[in-house]
Design brief:
The complex is a heterodimer of chains A (473) and B (89).
Chain A lengths: L8 H8 L6 E4 L9 H11 L5 E5 L9 H6 L3 E6 L1 E2 L1 H8 L7 E3 L2 H9 L7 E6 L1 E2 L5 E2 L18 H6 L2 E6 L19 E4 L20 H15 L8 E5 L3 H17 L3 E8 L1 H8 L3 E9 L2 H9 L3 E3 L2 H5 L13 E5 L2 E3 L4 E2 L10 E2 L3 H7 L2 E5 L3 E2 L2 E2 L1 E2 L14 E4 L2 E4 L4 H9 L4 E2 L1 H12 L7 E10 L5 E8 L2
Parallel strand pairs in A: 1-2, 1-6, 2-3, 3-5, 5-26, 6-9, 9-10, 11-12, 11-15, 12-13, 13-14, 15-19, 16-22, 19-23, 24-25
Antiparallel strand pairs in A: 4-18, 7-8, 16-17, 20-21, 23-24, 26-27
Helix pairs in contact in A: 7-8
Chain B lengths: L3 E3 L7 E6 L4 E7 L2 H18 L5 E7 L4 H16 L7
Parallel strand pairs in B: 3-4
Antiparallel strand pairs in B: 1-2, 2-4
Helix pairs in contact in B: 1-2
Classes of the chains: A alpha/beta (473), B alpha+beta (89).
């Protein structure tokens, strides 16, 4: 028979040699629309597997069915960039015996490349594949059902996993070119009805903010960038997905047009905002590890100067060629920042896991200027605090914190502080921000943490940064 | 005293329902209960005592309201429940 790769999911699993105790991996490019994780783990449970370690690039609300598979012993270990929803809630309360290991996107890429995170079988959803496994996050065929754009987080898995199964809902004629995942890395191809819901790719973090506070924060962040000394022709930029950080792009664009400045590249999760600037000629290249919306996904399909990169090429701290090393400016959000500029983006102020490390550690560490944008308070929850609930990004890699009550600059960056002061910006001491927050809300009672470790936060170099304890409320 | 309500379930607000009771009895549901439950109950108690109310059953559903909001909602609910307008003159 000419092709022996095309099989059912069950046959692909059998063929992979998967055994109890082994590690399976998944990517999260379908975000809230992902169907692959639940489909595969349901099948593994049905086939009687136990004690599997799940290494996902991230997990979200849609993966709540994993709770059942953890309770019945099918899944006994998880590593991921983040957790959200009821799964995160259950794990925060102590669902698992083994703590979840949290890595940044660059940290996960490094760990896979250097063998610290060994993947036995990767199950990689793709929007198109040919029968040999050349696969992409989009499809050029008329039968295209789903589109996620970049498959950047899946590429380390495709390259380094011992066995790779591509799962697609659009089998296209050979050769599916240009391809993201290469046939040479793929052992089996499985065709299913649907791998994911494209309409939900942009669900979750991405929103276009009309909130006046977000707009105020965005304007301040844009002013920081414009006056940072790094806003010169050929600069490079990455923005996170918070409302304020997306809105900031609009104000930066205006000033780029006014001054006739162009950016050499934009990096990271690419959004429609960045695609627009690129198409206007204001940004030369787009380097895309994850397409955050349909516009970005279509762009990576059609535009040769919109380049897909793997998580390793994007943000590995152990590969000097990674793109973050060339990054000038990054705008990031935060759940909490403390008076030592440490940032938490993973654990809510109620002690429950509700976020993801993403590229936060990687971009903050490698960029020339990292700017955290967050309000002073969210309701009664303070965002500038004496000490973060969980340490995710060390203060040594955070340069500026923008709040609606003022802009704090890391004392390690006096030259940035000088430039912002001479531009007339409201530069304040980070301690004054924490004091202001506490004067409005009072002193919070300590969180009722238990003595069980439910999560381990890794730094991007593979060292342990912090532990997350179970919450008892 | 009759039963009365003030406030909404919007983020940053608190909904206060006051009715007849013996002593001050506060049932609080809050998105920030672990860290601020004690403070929120204290603000409700102080506000009611300031209005001379010592007997009431209070149900509070908090969505992260600040103290000033809590005082305003408790006062409004108390005025509606007692019919005694504290804002006059």
């Amino acid at each position: 028979m000419r092709n022996t790769k095309l099989v059912t999911l069950e046959e692909a699993i059998r063929r992979s040699g998967l055994k109890d105790g082994m590690t399976i991996s998944f990517h999260h490019h379908f975000r809230g629309g992902d169907k692959v994780v639940n489909m595969v783990v349901d099948k593994l449970a049905q086939m009687g597997f136990k004690d599997l370690k799940l290494a996902a690039s991230s997990l979200s609300d849609v993966h709540a069915p994993l709770i059942g598979h953890i309770m019945n012993g099918v899944i006994t270990g998880i590593s991921t960039s983040g957790l959200r929803g009821t799964l995160a809630d259950a794990i925060s309360h102590g669902l698992m015996k083994e703590p979840v290991v949290f890595r940044s996107h660059g940290g996960r890429g490094s760990a896979i490349a250097n063998g610290e995170l060994k993947i036995d079988v990767a199950f990689l959803g793709a929007s198109s594949s040919d029968e040999l496994g050349n696969a992409c996050g989009y499809s050029r065929s008329e039968n295209a059902k789903s589109i996620c754009g970049s498959l950047g987080y899946a590429l380390p898995d495709a390259r380094y996993a011992a066995h790779v199964v591509v799962i697609t809902d659009d089998l296209v004629p050979y050769p599916n070119m240009p391809m993201s995942i290469h046939a040479a890395d793929v052992e089996s191809v499985v065709v299913v009805d649907s791998v994911g819901d494209s309409s939900k790719i942009a669900a979750g973090a991405i929103r276009d903010s009309k909130n006046p506070r977000d707009i105020l924060l965005a304007k301040q962040a844009a002013k920081v960038i414009i006056n940072s000394g790094l806003f010169v022709d050929g600069f490079s930029i990455q923005t996170g997905t918070g409302g304020a950080s997306l809105a900031a792009v609009k104000y930066i664009r205006e000033e780029m047009v006014n001054r006739g400045i162009k950016a050499s590249f934009a990096l990271g999760g690419i959004t429609a905002h960045m695609v627009k600037l690129h198409e206007e000629g204001l940004i030369g290249k787009l380097i895309d590890v994850q397409s955050f919306d349909k516009v970005a996904a279509e762009s990576i399909k059609n535009d040769p100067s919109h380049q897909e990169v793997s998580a390793v090429e994007y943000a590995s701290g152990q590969h000097l060629g990674s793109a973050t090393h060339a990054l000038d400016i990054v705008i990031l959000s935060a759940l909490e920042v403390d008076t030592h500029f440490n940032v938490n983006v993973l654990v809510g102020s109620d002690g429950i896991i509700r976020g993801a490390i993403g590229g936060h550690q990687d971009t903050a560490a490698d960029s020339a200027l990292s700017i955290i944008v967050c309000p002073l308070l969210r309701g009664r929850i303070p965002c500038v605090v004496p000490k973060v609930t969980t340490l995710i990004t060390p203060g040594s890699s955070v340069d500026v914190v923008v709040t609606e009550y003022g802009i704090a600059v890391n004392p390690a960056r006096p030259e940035i502080k000088e430039r912002l002061l001479s531009a007339g910006l409201n530069v304040v001491d980070i301690n004054a921000l924490a004091d202001k927050a506490s004067s409005i809300i009072g002193k919070p009672d300590p969180l009722p943490f238990g003595d069980k470790v439910v999560g381990i936060v890794m730094n991007r170099d593979g060292s342990v940064l912090d532990k997350i304890m179970n919450i008892q409320a | 005293m009759k039963e009365a309500v003030a406030g909404t379930l919007e983020s940053g607000d608190i909904m206060i329902k006051i009715g007849p009771g013996e002593g001050l009895d506060i049932e609080l549901q809050s998105s920030v209960a672990a860290q601020f439950g004690r403070q929120i109950k204290a603000v409700i108690t102080e506000t009611l005592e300031g209005l001379g109310i010592k007997d009431a059953h209070v149900e509070a559903v908090d969505k992260g309201a600040l103290d000033c909001t809590i005082r305003a909602r408790v006062t409004a609910a108390a005025v509606r429940a007692t019919g005694k307008d504290v804002w006059k003159d």
